[in-house]
Design a protein that fits this description.
single chain, 3 helices, alpha+beta
């Protein structure tokens, strides 16, 4: 599997994990010390992975519901780091997320997420 496919799989875990409130998938996608950061309704939100996962669990869609759409806009790789831009829907809201990934111990993980809520 090439680097872009590996990164695409992590993004897939992230998107599906968010939508389904799947703590295990999100735990594989994120480094345990990662953060989710952005402005929402005028307030700065800075959440740990545990806080972010709890929010996803609270907003989870049913297991039989189709996954909301998402689109990877870009992937930029430099050595063992990558930046991914993904547009997605979470809790019926549109977001553009910038994910910073690091390859460590043989796998890619999200180490930071900065989100933009799209009106």
């Amino acid at each position: 599997m090439d680097v872009l496919e590996e990164i695409g799989q992590v993004v897939g875990l992230y998107v599906a994990g968010m939508a389904r409130g799947d703590a295990e998938a999100l735990g594989r996608a994120f480094h345990p010390r990662a953060s989710s950061i952005g402005h929402f309704e005028g307030d700065l939100e800075w959440a740990s992975v545990d806080e972010f996962v709890a929010a996803c669990v609270a907003e989870a869609i049913p297991a039989d519901a189709p996954l909301p759409p998402h689109e990877i806009e870009s992937i930029s790789v430099a050595g063992d780091t990558a930046i991914v831009r993904v547009v997605n829907v979470w809790a019926n809201l549109d977001f553009r997320d910038t994910l910073t990934l690091l390859r460590h111990d043989g796998r890619w993980q999200i180490v930071a997420k900065a989100f933009l809520h799209l009106p």
